[in-house]
Amino acid sequence: MPRIGRRILKSSLAVFLCFVIYLLRGQEGIVFYSCIAAVLCIQQDVTNSKRVAFNRIKGTFLGGFIGMAVLLFEQSFISQDYMLIQYIIISVTIIVVIYLSVLLNMKSASYISCVVFMSITVSHAMDVNPYLFAINRMIDTLIGIFVALFINGVHLPNHHHDTSLFVVSLEHGLYNEEGQLSAYTKVKMKQLLERHANIAIMSEQSPVDVLSELKDIPLQLPLIAMNGACCYDIKKQEYQHCQYINEASMKRLLTIFQDAKINCFIHTVIHQILHVYYQDLHHAVEEEYYHRMRKTPYKNYICQDVKDMKNALMILVMEKKEKLSLLYEQLLALQDPSIRMIYKNDEEHHAYAILEIYSATACKDRIISEVMLKKAFTTLYVISEEDSRLLQMSDKRFVKSNTAVHYVEVDKKKEDGAIRMVEKCYRKRH
């Protein structure tokens, strides 16, 4: 049997508070509407609660004011004996209500606007004072909404977690076997963040790609991106700790690419905007990548000669396995200590492979260490795949000699394993 969850208990408490407020108001208004609004606005997280609440407020006021306007018109010009005319007016005004909700960018609130409008003009038009009902309806709805926001937004103080940092890999932690974020993971992450859990995301992707995927998740800590080549301060909206491939290595690499007639995508940051330079698209896989990624906002794709490029956070190459493996061996033979390379098979296109080239100074553990220092965290949880550089983190290399480091390898077969592990560790700290 399913257990009684927190949302159910919150809904019950919200309804009870609505009754208490009703009694304190001297039983003024209609408590039913407060309770309904409270139940509807109790969502899985505060963000969704605010969204539902805002829609309900807008819908209630739009429907309420139009309803009172129609009542005033009918009482002034239409006799109660002409009910058909009244119904025609109400039916036509529904068009106005829906149109205004669309015009005012309130599409999601159009339903509740119509409900409130018809409850005033149809169900309560014959009341002694229908305007009193309309006003009370709006007041009662507001009471229910604010009660729900209060209940959903209040958390017990949790001082034990102020110094704990959870660093979670997007690709090797949060993603499921299909390479996606499940609805459960998204909801649970929102809840943990709203409870002030210190969660930082690390990813192989660029910051703009990650943020577009996590757009509804209220991340606060810097995003560790592109395998540690940079991090992105979400609050300040700026790139930090960028580690560029040095100029001499860039010149050698681009010469080798040109001689081998291999295209590459060069990622760099200019004026806090990610720019991706490329020369030609040589095959369908590159074209597919380009057309998919160029739609991401805050990222510019520029086609031009790249032989004189000097700065690169990352060089991305995608080519057939036979050709790319030869290139990879050639680059390894350079024995360039200033670069770090990641060679991997393309999971979508099995005949192709991917090569990523970074500065040797680009590493996730360095950024994590700086975040630990800046935020004065003393306990670190790293939830990712088996990463030798992360595993080598020691107390001595971190902020203080008493800094605790916990590394957890996620079981990919376990649904939502990473976020469940974060929640488990977070609760243990209580």
UniProtKB/TrEMBL annotation:
<dbReference type="InterPro" id="IPR023214">
    <property type="entry name" value="HAD_sf"/>
</dbReference>
<keyword id="KW-1133">Transmembrane helix</keyword>
<keyword id="KW-0472">Membrane</keyword>
<dbReference type="InterPro" id="IPR049453">
    <property type="entry name" value="Memb_transporter_dom"/>
</dbReference>
<dbReference type="Pfam" id="PF08282">
    <property type="entry name" value="Hydrolase_3"/>
</dbReference>
<feature type="transmembrane region" description="Helical">
    <location>
        <begin position="59"/>
        <end position="78"/>
    </location>
</feature>
<dbReference type="GO" id="GO:0016020">
    <property type="term" value="C:membrane"/>
</dbReference>
<feature type="transmembrane region" description="Helical">
    <location>
        <begin position="109"/>
        <end position="126"/>
    </location>
</feature>
<feature type="transmembrane region" description="Helical">
    <location>
        <begin position="84"/>
        <end position="102"/>
    </location>
</feature>
<feature type="domain" description="Integral membrane bound transporter">
    <location>
        <begin position="18"/>
        <end position="151"/>
    </location>
</feature>
<protein>
    <recommendedName>
        <fullName>Integral membrane bound transporter domain-containing protein</fullName>
    </recommendedName>
</protein>
<dbReference type="Pfam" id="PF13515">
    <property type="entry name" value="FUSC_2"/>
</dbReference>
<keyword id="KW-0812">Transmembrane</keyword>
<dbReference type="InterPro" id="IPR036412">
    <property type="entry name" value="HAD-like_sf"/>
</dbReference>
